[in-house]
Design brief:
Layout: H1 7-37, H2 47-51, E1 59-62, E2 68-72, E3 76-77, H3 87-97, H4 109-121, H5 133-141, H6 151-169, H7 172-182, E4 189-190, H8 192-200, H9 209-218, H10 231-247, H11 253-260, H12 279-295, E5 312-315, H13 319-343, H14 355-363, E6 376-380, E7 387-391, H15 393-401, E8 405-412, E9 418-422, E10 438-440, H16 446-455, E11 463-465, E12 489-491, H17 492-497, H18 501-511, H19 513-522, E13 541-543, H20 544-555, E14 559-560, E15 566-570, E16 576-579, E17 587-588, H21 592-607, H22 613-616, E18 625-630, E19 636-642, E20 646-653, H23 664-667, H24 669-672, H25 674-686, H26 702-706, E21 713-714, H27 725-729, H28 734-737
Parallel strand pairs: 1-5, 3-4
Antiparallel strand pairs: 1-2, 5-15, 6-7, 8-9, 8-20, 10-13, 11-12, 12-21, 14-17, 15-16, 18-19, 19-20
Length: about 750
C-alpha cells in the first residue's frame, strides 16, 4: 500500500514509525530503570547502609618496632588512611580513569555519550569506558548479579544509581580513599597499600611518581600489565598514564618525557600467609587471636573477625632480633646439612624404616600405592634454592624428611616478652613448629635438678662420687657419662659445669623425683615428665618454649613469668581495643640467693665447661650463662644461654629419629645447636640498638661467689663435716627440711 503513497507522505509515515519505535524504546528503558530502582533485580543500598560500609580488610601484624610482619586475610586488602594517599597517585588515577571526577555527581554523562556513539554505534574499540571512579567503587563494594541477557544493563543501572547515592553520602576525597582501598591489583591483592608493598616493597606515600603510574596503569588489566610478569607491557602502560597526566596538566611535557625514559624497576615482595617476618610465630598467635575475636564484639551481637575487620596486632617480636635469628639459623643449618649429608654418604639413612612408616611420618597417614607413582619433575627445597628434581613420591618424601630441622627462641629475661621465634628451616615447605615440638631436653634439663638441690640446702661445694650405679628399682638402669669415664669426686658445681650424668642422677635421687617434677611445673613446664631416674638426664619430652621459660626464671633471679607475645590490639581506625601488660609479678620458683648460685654455676659451663666454645671459638666475652644438651644417639642437640637482659635457646634435630649424626663430634649440642645461638648473639652485640646487652653483668653478691670457691673435681673424697646427713637420709628431719613451694 505504501508503494502507492506520495514520496513526502512515505517519508512522514517512516518518520512517525521511527518516532514511535524510539518512544517505545525510551518508554521501555524508563520502565526498565524504574524496575531496577524499585528493587525488581535486587535491593539497592540505601543511604544508611552506604554510611556503614565496612570493607573486608586484612588484619595486620606488626613487630614491637613497628615493622609489618604479615597479614591474616581472605582477600589481601589493607586499610588506607586518607592522609596516606600521596597526590601523585590521586593525579595519576584521575588523569587516567576519571578526569572529571571532581565535577560530576557520580555519572559522567559526556563519557556515556562518547561510549554510546563511538563504542556502540560506530564500533570503535579502545574509545574508553564510561564508568566513573564512583561507579567502579560501587562495583567493587557490591558484587554483580546474574540476570541472563539483562545482566550487563541491570548491573550498570544499579552501579549508576548506587554511585549517585554515594556521592550524596561521602565527599570526593572519601570516595577516592575507599576506591584506593578496594580496587584489585591482581594476585589476590586489593588496595593501593597492599599493591605498593607487593610490587615495590614500600608504603604508598614512599612511591615515586613513575611507580605510582605503574600501579594506576595496572587497573586497566591487572594480569596484562603486571610489572613482574609482563614488565614491557607494564612499562608501556606506565608511559600512557604519564602521557595522560601531561595531557591534563598534572605534569609538564618535559617531566613526562624524562620519567618515560626511566626503566621499570619492581621490588616484588609477595606476602602470602607463610611469607613475611616470623611466619611460625604468626601461625602460633593466630589461634589466640581467633579466640580473642570470639570474646570481643564490634557491635552488641557481632564479634570481631580476624580476616575481615582490619585489626592491627602489635607483637613483642623485634624485627632486628628476628632477622638475626633467621639469618643465624640459615647460615648454620646450611653448613650443618652439608656435613650431615657427607657423613651419611654411601650409608642408608632410612635403614630399618619401611615404606609405610616413611609415608606415615610424612603426612600422618598411610596412602596405599602413593610411593609407587611414576617419576615426575617436582619443585623441592634445598639450601641452594628451590630446585626441580625427577622424583617419584617416595623419593620426594625421603628428600623432605632428610633435612635437619631447627628451632630458635629469644625472650626478654625480665619481662618474658618474646623477641624472636624461628620454628623451622622454611615455613613454605615445613609447617611443623619446632619451638612448640616436644623433644627430649638432654642436659639442658639438669639445672632444674641442681636448683632443687640448692633449695634443699645442698652446697655447690659438696662432693659426690662419680660412680656407675645400678638402680635396681628402675629396671636395673645405669646412667652413663658421655665420655664413659668414672671415678673421683665432683663438686655439685663441677658436675654441672662438666655435665656429669652419674652425679646428676645421684642428686635427683637425693632430692626426690617428685620434688624436681614439682619445681619443673612451677618453672612453666606443662608437658608430662617421666618419674624415673633418667629424668635428670633430660629424657622427658618438652618444648623449646618451655625450656627457654625455665632459663628465663633463673636469669630473672628465680621469678618465672608467663611468656608475653602480644602488646596490644587496635581496630582499623587505630582505636586501642586491648592491651597486654607484661609487668605481672610472676611466680617465685626459688630464693634469689639460689638463683644467683645457679647463674654462677651456669656461667661456669660457658667459661670452663661444655659451652666453652663460645669463648674460645667464637670470641664472645659478654657475661653469659648457659647449658648444652645432647640426647641419646645424638638425636637432639640443644643450647640455651642468657645474658642479664636476653635469654635464647636453640634446638637441632630431625623430624625422624633416624635423621641424626652418627658421632658425638657433630651430634653434640655444642656443635649442632650452639653455633646458631652464637651467630645470633654476635649479630645482636653489633647492633647499635641492642649492643648494650654485651656490657650488662649479673648482680651476684660476694657471699654467693664465696660459696663457689672450691674445685670442680678431686681424685680422692674430700672431708665433708655433715653430722646430720645420715639422720636426714633416714627421714627423721624430712618434715623440717621439706621446702614449702608456692604455686
Amino acid at each position: 500500500m505504501m508503494q502507492n503513497l506520495p514520496k513526502t507522505k512515505k517519508r512522514k509515515t517512516a518518520l512517525n514509525v521511527s518516532l514511535y519505535i524510539v518512544a517505545g524504546l525510551v518508554l521501555l528503558q524508563g520502565v526498565f530503570i524504574l524496575m531496577v530502582l524499585a528493587g525488581a533485580f535486587g535491593k539497592l543500598p540505601d543511604n544508611q547502609s552506604l554510611r556503614q560500609i565496612q570493607n573486608p580488610i586484612a588484619t595486620e601484624v606488626y613487630t614491637a618496632d613497628g615493622v609489618l610482619m604479615g597479614t591474616y586475610y581472605i582477600q589481601n586488602r589493607q586499610f588506607l588512611e586518607p592522609s596516606a594517599i600521596p597526590e601523585t597517585i590521586k593525579d595519576a588515577l584521575i588523569a587516567t580513569e576519571d578526569v572529571r571526577f571532581y565535577s560530576h555527581n557520580g555519572i559522567d554523562y559526556r563519557s556515556l555519550f562518547r561510549v554510546f556513539f563511538k563504542t556502540l554505534l560506530l564500533r570503535k574499540e579502545g574509545s574508553g569506558g564510561g564508568s566513573t571512579l564512583t561507579q567502579q567503587l560501587a562495583k567493587n563494594l557490591y558484587l554483580r548479579g546474574e540476570f541472563g541477557a539483562l545482566t550487563m544493563p541491570v548491573n550498570k543501572v544499579k552501579e549508576m544509581a548506587t554511585a549517585l547515592r554515594m556521592e550524596k553520602v561521602y565527599t570526593k576525597d572519601e570516595i577516592l580513599e575507599m576506591y584506593l582501598s578496594t580496587v584489585s591489583f591482581g594476585e589476590n591483592t586489593f588496595g593501593i597499600k597492599a599493591a605498593s608493598r607487593r610490587y615495590f616493597n614500600k608504603d604508598p606515600q614512599e612511591l615515586r611518581l613513575e611507580e605510582s603510574a605503574v600501579l594506576v596503569g595496572m587497573l586497566k588489566a591487572t594480569k596484562i600489565y603486571n610489572p613482574v610478569k609482563n614488565p614491557e607491557r607494564a612499562r608501556d602502560r606506565r608511559d600512557v598514564v604519564l602521557a595522560q597526566m601531561a595531557k591534563y596538566g598534572f605534569l609538564d611535557d618535559s617531566g613526562a618525557d624524562s620519567l618515560q625514559a626511566l626503566p621499570l624497576e619492581a621490588d616484588y615482595h609477595p606476602l602470602p600467609h607463610n611469607a613475611g617476618i616470623a611466619p611460625y610465630f604468626r601461625e602460633f598467635i593466630r589461634a589466640e587471636l581467633d579466640a580473642w575475636c570470639l570474646e570481643h564484639f564490634k557491635t552488641e551481637s557481632e564479634p570481631y573477625n580476624l580476616y575481615t575487620d582490619g585489626l592491627k596486632v602489635y607483637t613483642t617480636i623485634d624485627s632486628r632480633l628476628q632477622h638475626y635469628a633467621e639469618e643465624a639459623m640459615r647460615g648454620h643449618m646450611t653448613h650443618l646439612q652439608r656435613i650431615f649429608e657427607k657423613q651419611w654418604e654411601g650409608d642408608d639413612l632410612w635403614k630399618g624404616l619401611t615404606e609405610k612408616q616413611l609415608l606415615i611420618n610424612y603426612d600422618g597417614e598411610h596412602r596405599s600405592g602413593m610411593a609407587k607413582e611414576s617419576t615426575r619433575e617436582m619443585e623441592v627445597f634445598t639450601w641452594e634454592g628451590m630446585q626441580r628434581r625427577e622424583y617419584n613420591s617416595l623419593d620426594s618424601i625421603k628428600h623432605f624428611l632428610g633435612f635437619l630441622q631447627a628451632g630458635f627462641l629469644a625472650m626478654d629475661s625480665k619481662t618474658a616478652e618474646i623477641k624472636a621465634w624461628v620454628g623451622g628451616i622454611n615455613h613454605e615447605y615445613y609447617k611443623y613448629d619446632h619451638v612448640l615440638a616436644r623433644r627430649q631436653a638432654g642436659s639442658t634439663f639438669k639445672p632444674l635438678v641442681y636448683l632443687e638441690a640448692l633449695e634443699q640446702e645442698i652446697s655447690p661445694c659438696d662432693f659426690f662420687h662419680n660412680d656407675s650405679v645400678v638402680y635396681h628399682d628402675y629396671d636395673d638402669w645405669t646412667p652413663r657419662n658421655a665420655d664413659r669415664t668414672y671415678g673421683g669426686y665432683y663438686s655439685m658445681k663441677g658436675a654441672l659445669v662438666h655435665s656429669v650424668n652419674t652425679v646428676s642422677v645421684d642428686l635427683l635421687m637425693r632430692v626426690g623425683i617428685d620434688s624436681v617434677l614439682e619445681l619443673s611445673e612451677m618453672a612453666g613446664i606443662e608437658s608430662p615428665l617421666p618419674a624415673v631416674p633418667s629424668l635428670a638426664l633430660g629424657t622427658g619430652e618438652v618444648s623449646l618454649l618451655e625450656m627457654v621459660g625455665v632459663y628465663q626464671a633463673i636469669a630473672n633471679y628465680g621469678i618465672a613469668k608467663e611468656p608475653v607475645y602480644i602488646q596490644r590490639i587496635e581496630d582499623r581506625n587505630g582505636k586501642i581495643l586491648d592491651v597486654m601488660d607484661p609487668s605481672a609479678e610472676g611466680n617465685a620458683i626459688c630464693t634469689p640467693e639460689n638463683a644467683e648460685l645457679m647463674i654462677e654455676m651456669l656461667k661456669g659451663v660457658v667459661n670452663e665447661g661444655t659451652a666453652n666454645g663460645l669463648r674460645t671459638n667464637y670470641g664472645i666475652t659478654a657475661d653469659i650463662a648457659g647449658k648444652t644438651g645432647t640426647t641419646q644417639n645424638y638425636t637432639d642437640g640443644w643450647f640455651i644461654g642468657f645474658t642479664p637482659g636476653l635469654v635464647a635457646g636453640a634446638w637441632v634435630g630431625g623430624d625422624l629419629q633416624n635423621v641424626r649424626f652418627q658421632t658425638i663430634q657433630y651430634g653434640q649440642g655444642a656443635y649442632s645447636a650452639m653455633p646458631m645461638w652464637s651467630g645470633f648473639m654476635r649479630s645482636v652485640f653489633r647492633d647499635d640498638h641492642w649492643k648494650m646487652l654485651q656490657d650488662e653483668v649479673f648482680e651476684i653478691s660476694p657471699d654467693t661467689q664465696n660459696q663457689l670457691l672450691c674445685d670442680d673435681f678431686r681424685e680422692k673424697k674430700p672431708f665433708q663435716f655433715k653430722p646430720f646427713e645420715a639422720l636426714k637420709e633416714k627421714g627423721l628431719f624430712k618434715n623440717l627440711f621439706k621446702r614449702k613451694k608456692n604455686k
